[in-house]
Structure formats: structure tokens, C-alpha cells
Amino acid sequence: MIKYIGSKRKLVPHIVKLFDRLPGVHTVLDLFSGTSRVGHALKERGYLVTANDHNRYAFHLARCYVQADRERWQPQVDALVAEFNRLPGRPGYFTETFCQASRYFQPHNGARVDAIREAIAGRGLEPELESILLTSLMEAADRVDSTVGVQMAYLKQWAPRAFNDLQLRSPELLPGAGMALQHDALACADLGRFDAVYIDPPYNQHKYRNNYHVWESLVCWDKPEVYGVACKRVDCRDYESPFNSKRQIGEALAKVLSAVDARYLVVSFSNEGYLHEEDLRSMLAHRGSLSVLSVDHPRYVGAQIGIYNPSGVKTGTVSHLRNRELLFVLDRERTVDQLSLRF
Predict the structure, then answer these.
(1) What's the structural domain count of the chain?
(2) pTM for this structure?
(3) How many CB atoms lie within 10 A of CB 89?
(4) How far apart, in whole angstroms, are the C-alpha atoms of residue 283 and residue 151?
(5) Do 169 and 140 contact (CB within 8 A), yes or no?
């Protein structure tokens, strides 16, 4: 799966273990699904998962990893991956924007992205199959990028991986049912009743659409106007989320907590977020019985690489490489203390 700020890759085993200890859980809503790592792991475990995210690239990832049924799609996916891997590069919008006007990818790989994306667009594929191929293309491009882990900047010198040739791979599909949705989280009351809801919202100033604008443009294929050194989509200028606002995040999260319809709420939040642990305890405790777990966690990949400006020049020193991920487990019907919620 793609590199992603806030990724729960290291936390997934803990999260799955936690859900396994919640009695009576079969249906799960992942409200801010991102890369769908959590939703994919829960589906693999046997839960009926609905994955939701308002970003278009995240919706395609969810349709691939949560909704698509391997038994239905795998042969077609393998055949199309093999076919598209044989396509020669044809430079177009992607190459001009992300290889020449900026330096996210080397031009030979940008030309392959252009050719494959046009081929996907020209096939008129069924929606789930299209999402699987778009996921394969995003992941292939991610393996040969030259970024600091987010798409607000690219490296001044090429990353070693950027010299590799772009190669599609079949995503790791799972058998069985699931659902992918693209709704604003604040409209979650319309999504229905679930046994449990996993809530992992943005928690600071990092705007996911801005951080991953290349993927948004790649899946939408609307070839938008761009601005700045980073060549961000022009709609990034107007994009605002209350979850990225220190002033608004508390009210926005409280609205979500009131609106979701489930017995269990599992809220994931970093100790680097705008809200502190005590803020969240206070927000949740009156809604039911609360348990809080803490997991030591490495910071996102950009922190491992360093701090760079939009031109890819290293400008500062990272203060720390680890943080704490807090998992708040709210049971609206019984005492959580009766559960063994320990890692």
C-alpha cells in the first residue's frame, strides 16, 4: 500500500486484536479510511466492513481493498496488469506536470503512468475493476517516487527508487463482501447502524487531499490546473476541513461522536494532535464506559527522512521519531472493564 502520513501499518495488529475482544461485533464502519489498511485487515479477519473517505483516491483504495471480491476479479486483474505492463510510455499531462514542471517522478516513469492511465480510462471498466487497476497504478508510482512521504515537496536529488522502472502488481484482494463509500464524515448519521465504528480523523494541520494531490489528480484524471512549486491542484487552495483546524476540531469530532450509530466507538488519536488525551477522555466518558490504550508508534515516513521545503531542500532537524497512538474504546451498553482490553 502507498506511503501515507498517519498510516496505521504498525498498529493494525493491535487494532484487529482489540476488535476481536469486543463481543457481538460483525459489522464495522471505518469512517476515515485513508489507505484502507485497517478496513482490509478487519475484512481479512471476517468482519463485514464499510470503508468511508471523502477523498476520491481513498475511495478507490477502499473499493479495491474492502469492497472488491477476489473470487470475482482476480483473473481479470492479473490479465490487465500483465497487458498494461507491456505498454510503452506516452508522455502526457502526468509527465508534463509531475516530471517536468515538478520532480516527483522521472520522465520515463511519468510516461508509463500516462499510457496506463489513458488505457484504464479508455476501457470503460466496471467500477470495482477500475478501482483495482487505479490502486495498482498508484502503488506502482509510489514505489518509484522521489518525495519525503507526502506530496507537498519532492527531493532536490533523486531518490534511489526513482531510477527503477514502474511496474504494476496485482493488489492483495480479499474474498467476500464489503462496501466503499465517499461521504463527508459529518454526514455519518446517514450511513446506518453498525456494531462498531473505527474513527481515525485527521488530527492536526496536515490536509490529506493537499498531501496526496498527485493521487487525487491521477484517479480523477481531470487534468486540472495546478499552482506552486509542488504543482498542487487548484482546488487545494479552497479545500478546508474542520479536522485540520485547532479551533474547530473539537466541535467537529463531537458532532461525529453524537451522529454515529453503533454500540462501540474505537477512536484513534495521536499525542501529536490538536486535542489532548484529557480532552478526548472528557468528550467520550459521558457517552458510555471508556477504556484507553496507548501504543508507542514510529512517526510518519517524512519524519524519518527529514524536513524539506517545497523545492526539496533540507531545512531543519526532526525533533523526535516516535509518538504515542491512543486508542479510546467506548462501550455504550456495558462496562468496558468487563473486557480484557490490554496489549
Answers:
(1) 1
(2) 0.90
(3) 18
(4) 33
(5) yes
